[in-house]
Amino acid sequence: MQAYLPGFALGLSLILAIGAQNAFVLKQGLKKQHVFLVCTICALSDAILISLGVSGFGALVERFPIVEQIARFGGAAFLMVYAAMSFYSAYKTRHSLNPEGSAPESALKIALICLGFTWLNPHVYLDTVVLLGSISTQYSDNIGAFTFGAISASFVFFYSLGYGSRVLIPVFQKPRAWQILEVIIGIIMSVLAISLLR
C-alpha cells in the first residue's frame, strides 16, 4: 500500500489536466458514442506507456530524442487538423443537437482518432514514460504495487470522465452549448499544437 498510493497519486496528477485526449473523452461521453471503447483505449494505452516507463523505456527516449521529435511534429499536425474540424463544427451547427440522437461515427474512426490523441502526443512520452519511469526507481523494492497504482489511476480517471460527463447532457442539449464546447476544444487543440512546434 505504501507504493500503491504514491503510484495512484502520481498517475492521476499526470492525466488530470484538460488536454486534447481528455477533451475528446469528454465529448464522446456527452454524445454517448463509443464511450466504453474510448475509455478502454485511453486506459490501456496508459497502462502500456506506464509499463514501458517503469521497465526503463524512459531512458531509451532520453538517449534517442528523435522519438520525441517525431511525436512532436506528428502530434502538432494531428492537433491542427482536429482543431480545424472543431471550429468548422462550431460554425456549422445551427440546430438543437441531442447527444443521443446525433448520427454516430464508426467505431473504427473513433478508435483511430483516440489512438492518435494518445500516441501522437509527445507529452505522454515525457510525462508518463520518462517522468513516471524515473520516479518509479524510488520504489524498486515494490515496483509492482507502484505500477499497479499508476495504471489503476488511469482506469478510474478515464471511465469517470467518459461516463460522468453524462450529468452535463441537459446543458449540451442546447446548440449554443455544443458550439461553445467545439470552440473551446478547437482552442485547446490549437494552443497545444503551437506549443509543440515551439
Walk me through the structure.
The chain has 198 residues and is mostly helical. The chain has one domain. It is built from nine helices and no strands. The protein has helices at 4-15, 20-31, 35-54, 57-63, 66-92, 107-119, 122-136, 143-164, 175-197. The mean pLDDT is 81.
In short:
With about 200 residues, the protein is an all-alpha fold. The chain contains nine helices and no strands.
DSSP summary, beta strand count: 0
**Helical percent range?**
over 70%
Sheet-strand content, in percent, reads under 5%
Main beta-sheet strand count, sense and barrel state: none
In whole angstroms, the N-to-C terminal distance is 41 Å
Question: What is the ordering of alpha helices and beta strands?
Answer: HHHHHHHHH
**Domain unit count:** 1
User: What is the overall pLDDT average?
Assistant: 81
**Unreliable runs:** none
Count of alpha/pi helices: 9
* Whole-angstrom Rg: 18 Å
Q: What structural class is derived from the secondary structure elements?
A: mainly alpha
Keywords:
198 residues; mainly alpha; 9 helices; globular
Write the layout of secondary structure elements.
Layout: H1 4-15, H2 20-31, H3 35-54, H4 57-63, H5 66-92, H6 107-119, H7 122-136, H8 143-164, H9 175-197
Helix pairs in contact: 1-7, 1-8, 2-3, 2-8, 2-9, 3-6, 3-7, 3-8, 4-7, 5-7, 5-9
